[in-house]
Amino acid sequence: MCGIFGCVIKDGQAVRLITDGLKRLEYRGYDSIGVATIVDGGLHVRKDKGKLEEVVEGLRINEMEGTIGMGHTRWATHGAPSRVNAHPHIDGSGNIALIHNGVIENYMELKDELIEKGHIFVSRTDTEVIPHLIEEELTSDIGMKGAILRVLRRLKGSYAVVVLSTHEPDRVYCARHESPLVIGVSDNGAFCASDVPAMLPYTNQVSYLRNGEMAVLTLDGYEVVKVIDGSLVERNLEEITWSLEMAEKQGYTHFMLKEIYEQPESLRDGLRLQEQYLNLLTQFLDRGKDVFLTAAGTSYHSCLAASYIFSKLSRLTTIPVVSSEFIERYGSTVGIDSVVLAVSQSGETYDTLKAIDHARMRAATVLGITNTVGSTLTRVSRAYLIQQSGPEIGVAATKTFTSQVIVLSQMALRLAKQKGKLSQDELDEFEEKLTLIPSWVEDTIQSNSGYIEALAEKYQDDKLFLFLGRGISAATALEGRLKLLEITYVPSLAYPAGESKHGPISVIEDGVACIFICPRGDTHPNIIGSIMEMKARGARIISICEEGDEEVKRLSDDFIEMPRGIPEELSPVPYVVPLQLLAYHLAVLKELDPDMPRNLAKSVTVP
Ligand code: G6P
Predict the structure, then answer these.
(1) Residue 602 falls in the annotated catalytic set
(2) What CATH number is given to the structural domain containing 176?
(3) Which of 259, 366, 397, 595 is the most exposed place for a label (fewest CB within 10 A)?
(4) CA 565, 179, 167: angle at the middle one, nearest 5?
(5) Residue 117's pLDDT band (boundaries 50, 70, 90)?
(6) Residues 248/197, Cβ–Cβ less than 8 Å
(7) What span, in angstroms and rounded, lies between the C-alpha atoms of 298 and 137?
(8) 2 among known catalytic residues
(9) Domain with 455 in it: what CATH number?
(10) Does residue 144 share a domain with residue 268?
(11) Number of structural domains, the chain?
C-alpha cells in the first residue's frame, strides 16, 4: 500500500499541493518519498527513503518549480526502502516518470523481456518495468495515450499509477485496477490521489475511478477512458461533504473500522506473493527437523491457525509458541536442524526478535513474515515474505490477522504441492477457494455489518463472554476474544470447545453469552455437542455458522450467517471478521476509543 498524488494547476506551485497531499496520505506508507515535476519541457525528480518532513527538507523538495507534478509516499513491498527503490521510476530515455501503488505480479517476465531488448534497470521494484514498457511502446508511434493503454493491458496484478512525460508536458495520465484512485477538479486545475482527503483542501468535486479505467487530467478538466478499448466513459463528479477529519478515515469513524472494511483489498494483495520467495520459504520449511512458529499477540494467533493448516494440508508438524516463552521452552532444543518462522506485523516486537536471536545463535534457520520491509525481522531472516496489507493504525490488529493467515495458507499449499501431499484435485480446489476469500470477506461485511451492530446493542451490558471453537476455530475464538479484550476491557474466556468442560463450564449460569465459531467441516458434529452442553446450563448462544446451517441456528439465540462453501481449513479469515466487528461496535457503545485502547501499544519494542 502506498499513497499517490498528481495534479496540474493553473496558478502557483504544484509541489506545495503535492507535499501537502502526501502528508495526508502518510497513513498508506511512510518509508520513502518522491516527487516529479515538469518545467520548461524537462523532467525533475527528487526522491529518497525516510519520513516525509526529513526528505522534503533534506532535498529541498518544496523549492521545486512546476505547475504539473506528482508525488508518492511508499510502503515497500518489492525492494527495501532506499533512494533507488523510491518512486517515481523513470524510463531509459529519462522522459517518462511513473508512480505506482499495488503489486505487478508478472513483472519478472516483463523485466526479462525488456532486459533482452537492452533496457537497464536500477531498482528492485516491480514498478520500474512500467515506464520502460511505455518507452518501448512509444517507438511504434502511437502517442502517450495509446502507449500507456497498451502497457496497462499487459499488467497482471493491482495498480494505481500516475504518469508524467515530457512528450506531453501538460497532461497527467492516471489509471487503476484493484488499487484505489480518485480524481478531482476545481477552478484551479485537476487532481488525482489514492483517496479523497489528500485533495479535499483543494476540491470536494471528485470521481472514483473504477477498475480498468484511465483518466487524462489537463487544465481544462478530465477525460475517462476504458483501458480495454480506449472508449470514452461518461463520468460525473460527485460532491464530498465530509469534514477533513472524517475524510482522513475515508468517512469511517475510526481507523479500526476502516481497516476491517479494507480487508477484501488487503487480502487480494496478500494473494499476490512473489513466487520465488514463496518457493524459497517453503523449501526451507521442508528441510527443518523441527519447525517452530513464533510470534506475539495477534500474530501468534495467526501462527496457531497456521499450525492446523500446515498439518492438514502439508502434513507438516509445526510448533506454535508465543515468542516470550520461546527461549525458556525450546531454547535448549532448537538447533542447526530447526527452522523458526517468526511472524510479526511490525517486524520489531522485542520478544520475537529475542527469540530469533537465540535461534540464530544456535544455528537454526530463521524465516520471517512481516508487513514491514526493512524492519529488523527482514534484516535478520534468511528469507522472508511480506504480508502486503499496508500500514495498520488501529492498535487492535485486524487486517494483520487475515493477511498473515492467507500468506501462511499459501505457504502450506505450496509445501503440499512440493511434497505431493494432496491430490491434484484437492490442490486445485484449495487454490480456487483461496482466491475466493477476499469476496467471502466482502460478502460477510456487506450482509452482516448492520446485524452485528444491532447484536452489539443487545449484548452491550454483558459482563462476561466465552469464545469457543473446535480445531482451527479455537484460533479464531482466541483472536476474536483478543479483539474484545483489547478494546472493550470486558472479561472473557476463549477455549477449544472440547476443553470447555474441564473448567470454563463452571462460569456458565443463566444468560452468560457464549460465542461459538461453527464452520462446516470435520469439527461440525462435535461443536453441536459443545453448544448443547452450554445451552443446557443456561448460556445464551451466539453462533457464527454457514448460511442455512439449520442445526446450529436452531440451538442459537442469535446467529451470524457466513457465505456457503468456505472450507474449515481456511475459515479463520472470513469467520474472524464478525468478531472484529462485534468488538468494535461494543467498544463504540461503551464510548471507548477502539483506535487507542488503554495500556496497549501498536508495537512493543521493550522487554
Ligand atoms: C502488540 C499489539 C498487537 C500485536 C502484537 C504483536 O501487542 O498491540 O496488536 O498483535 O503487539 O505485534 P507484531 O508487530 O509482532 O505483529
Answers:
(1) yes
(2) 3.60.20.10
(3) 595
(4) 150
(5) very high
(6) yes
(7) 46
(8) yes
(9) 3.40.50.10490
(10) no
(11) 3
